[in-house]
Amino acid sequence: MIGWICLSRKILDCYLWEDKPFSKGQAWIDLLLMASHEKKRFLLGNDVVEIDRGSFITSELKLMNRWGWSKSKVRSFLCLLESEKMIVKKTDSKKTAITIVNYGKYQDLQTAERPQKDREQTAKKPQKDTINNENNENKKNKEKENNKKKDPPTLEEIRAYCKERNSCVDADKFFEYFDTGGWVDSKGNKVKNWKQKIITWEKYGGNRSSPQTQATKFTNFEEREYNELDALENQLARN
Fold first, then answer.
1. Beta strand ranges found along the chain (DSSP E)
2. How far apart are CA 201 and CA 191, in angstroms?
3. How far apart are CA 140 and CA 199, in angstroms?
4. Is 91 in a helix, a strand, or coil?
5. Which H helix or E strand runs over 98?
6. Which is more confidently placed, 121 or 90?
7. 52 pLDDT exceeds 60?
8. N- to C-terminal Cα distance for the chain?
9. What pairs with residue 48 in β-bridges?
10. The model's pTM
11. Contact by Cβ (8 Å): 60, 71
12. What are the φ/ψ torsions at residue 78 (nearest 5 degrees)?
């Protein structure tokens, strides 16, 4: 099994952790939790003591109380860890100093893996940039295609659509009417849906004169025709 977990020292306050006696595995983790994560100095009696990262000061009596073990069991366990080169223990008349061997392996794995992770992210970045560039290019092409669809239709497109619908609208007259007027409706708005305009013309029998003719023959009747057509177009658009 590979990988590691973050373990907060707050576990020491958990009632499950306080259950005694400790197992050997629990005692080993307890030593890891007691180790200092940085180099520090502190006062012990009248002496200033300095410990390195991964070390701590304790005593056999303190470990006996923490783990619920006898003195002989604590000593034999610490000797076992020393023989396995898991700790280094130094004892004098006032204290016992314990250093976790290779403490960084238990705490610095994330830091050690970071360069590899950075390399992987850097290697993926050009590919990601290429994909983004392709997506942007596709988006631009799609926008261009959409803009083309908004251009006025050709006479051939109108003829084909009228033939498809078997429409009564004269395609050539329809094209002349709107093309001459700049593809705007009677209100001066740009024609967005020329197919809908053809359907509207069908409702009126397929006939409608050009803007030039309208200008010369404009009457109240013609004005009413415009209004009726616009109203019909709006109704068809809503439907």
1. 40-44, 47-51, 55-58, 87-91, 96-100
2. 14
3. 33
4. strand
5. strand 96-100
6. 90
7. yes
8. 66
9. 43
10. 0.45
11. yes
12. -65, -35
